[in-house]
């Protein structure tokens, strides 16, 4: 058996289907029915619930009751095909009538399913009374909210019900007829468009079909968007081939094994030095402010560091293997030394300081293998960061052994090595200057720790920069990178928002949980962070104050990120997923500060003396900010900041669209889900009436489901506000999707890397 869910799910890769695909799908359903249904060739309610894969059973029961036309308590193949054929091939009105019947839940025939809802108990049968009462609408909306993982007060639910009922009940009769619902739906074009979608898409949303990576690589947009990376990789490969060839040809008279060993050795001189260059973070941050930033892939320096690390290990293995093969040949030819002597004894003819090239080479091979093994993500993210940290510190031993092993390595290493030492000395000087005090802590939903740290007077940074943070009370030697979420214009403190994803971040959250903060009653999401901090720590009392007083930290940085390019963009699209909003929190605050500066005018004559000036640090004409969250609670992290930005823009330019916000909640039923049509209409109506979103309290309406990137970027392209650059911070999987869309529209794409 293929499982119960197979009967209602279209084959993999299908989407909104054509007429031919619909017919094929119905045939496929027929074939699967025999293997899924029991001997009686009927499907029970429980099998139907599993097939729909819904979070709650209410809508599964409604669909089942409507499909079960004979009221037998099971669905036959004939009943199923008849219902699906109507939804697949039926007109827009057929589908709308089915939606009306789903909402008309007061059917009263015998055998109907009873839906238990607090304060309301309605009979969920098949055909209802022919009109929708307020109580019925309230039940449906409540189940929509539950399936969307949206928690609203009971009064808010009543407001939603009243908003939709008042709009749809045209004749004020106290109930909604089919004609009235149809008339109201026509005011929502997107909803009417969704009614044309195939029934297969209603019953199970299709998976997006992503264009193959191979096909994308052949497009001009892909090459244009990756030109710096591809040019770098081409140059890097060419340099290695050139170095290998020159060294190998220079030793051609000594045999093939020596040619391979010397060629790999020369490449190792370059690559072991280049490893250090790629981690000169302060130098790389300085380069971001130069014209070289446009041609060098500075954003991928950590990725290239990892790549070069793999190349070093491969070259070292080839170098060692070639020397061992050559030593074995020499031992057989002259017989003066055995192979073990070549490997483990100091012999002048072998090379190296004091003839120790073999011993230092074997030690280097072991150290490099250990560093690579303990640098893997499974080690770093499984609670063993200190193993990675201490094995990676062996780079000091590696460089020392390389100087002893290769007579020419020091020539390659002297300049980068000095820069590396200077950066480390500067970092140590910061730490020797004394620790910084954590002045406030706020524990946010989804285990996010908000740290407020005193800002040193000499600490200067750009919006979107990040620092390395060390808190000895959590782990003495661990340093972790976090984006600064406060704007540079905030002089006294630094903000960090840290989500608990690993061992160190979980320890941090638990450490500050020790002074238990009494759980207050539900508050609106827009409550300010400062208000929450004062309420929380005031209740904690002396214990909490003592904990903060004893908690110090050290910072190393700041270091630049791709976000520094935002202010030189014309049309910037900022996309944050979850905690990925943190770099944009700093950037949005700084953008609005510069925007206010541009709008300064004389209070008497209203002359603007900054408007016509070209601000070299602010070329932005338009900013689109997109924030994608899993559920309602995640919006509490920065909703107060976003509300402030909305108010500032309204004061500076009423009706202005310089900064547009777009919020998406992925757990909510999307607009192309038939079950959610009523809820989304109610939310839209109430938001229009109150000028406030029911989920976040912002003026910006929170959209359900995931963004349709083709529509989002299509709208951006239509605005023609200048060259579009997209900046993303979030999961790698989503980054691939957005990068592909950027290539399609010809937008530049930048992703945060640590």
Automatic annotation (TrEMBL):
<protein>
    <submittedName>
        <fullName>NOX5 oxidase</fullName>
    </submittedName>
</protein>
<dbReference type="Pfam" id="PF00036">
    <property type="entry name" value="EF-hand_1"/>
</dbReference>
<feature type="domain" description="EF-hand">
    <location>
        <begin position="156"/>
        <end position="191"/>
    </location>
</feature>
<keyword id="KW-0106">Calcium</keyword>
<keyword id="KW-0285">Flavoprotein</keyword>
<dbReference type="InterPro" id="IPR039261">
    <property type="entry name" value="FNR_nucleotide-bd"/>
</dbReference>
<keyword id="KW-1133">Transmembrane helix</keyword>
<dbReference type="InterPro" id="IPR011992">
    <property type="entry name" value="EF-hand-dom_pair"/>
</dbReference>
<dbReference type="GO" id="GO:0043020">
    <property type="term" value="C:NADPH oxidase complex"/>
</dbReference>
<dbReference type="GO" id="GO:0042554">
    <property type="term" value="P:superoxide anion generation"/>
</dbReference>
<dbReference type="InterPro" id="IPR017927">
    <property type="entry name" value="FAD-bd_FR_type"/>
</dbReference>
<dbReference type="InterPro" id="IPR013112">
    <property type="entry name" value="FAD-bd_8"/>
</dbReference>
<dbReference type="GO" id="GO:0006952">
    <property type="term" value="P:defense response"/>
</dbReference>
<dbReference type="GO" id="GO:0016175">
    <property type="term" value="F:superoxide-generating NAD(P)H oxidase activity"/>
</dbReference>
<dbReference type="Pfam" id="PF08030">
    <property type="entry name" value="NAD_binding_6"/>
</dbReference>
<dbReference type="Pfam" id="PF01794">
    <property type="entry name" value="Ferric_reduct"/>
</dbReference>
<keyword id="KW-0479">Metal-binding</keyword>
<dbReference type="InterPro" id="IPR017938">
    <property type="entry name" value="Riboflavin_synthase-like_b-brl"/>
</dbReference>
<dbReference type="InterPro" id="IPR050369">
    <property type="entry name" value="RBOH/FRE"/>
</dbReference>
<keyword id="KW-0274">FAD</keyword>
<keyword id="KW-0560">Oxidoreductase</keyword>
<dbReference type="Pfam" id="PF13202">
    <property type="entry name" value="EF-hand_5"/>
</dbReference>
<dbReference type="InterPro" id="IPR013130">
    <property type="entry name" value="Fe3_Rdtase_TM_dom"/>
</dbReference>
<keyword id="KW-0812">Transmembrane</keyword>
<keyword id="KW-0472">Membrane</keyword>
<dbReference type="GO" id="GO:0005509">
    <property type="term" value="F:calcium ion binding"/>
</dbReference>
<dbReference type="InterPro" id="IPR018247">
    <property type="entry name" value="EF_Hand_1_Ca_BS"/>
</dbReference>
<feature type="domain" description="EF-hand">
    <location>
        <begin position="55"/>
        <end position="90"/>
    </location>
</feature>
<keyword id="KW-0521">NADP</keyword>
<dbReference type="Pfam" id="PF08022">
    <property type="entry name" value="FAD_binding_8"/>
</dbReference>
<dbReference type="InterPro" id="IPR002048">
    <property type="entry name" value="EF_hand_dom"/>
</dbReference>
<dbReference type="InterPro" id="IPR013121">
    <property type="entry name" value="Fe_red_NAD-bd_6"/>
</dbReference>
<feature type="domain" description="FAD-binding FR-type">
    <location>
        <begin position="431"/>
        <end position="565"/>
    </location>
</feature>
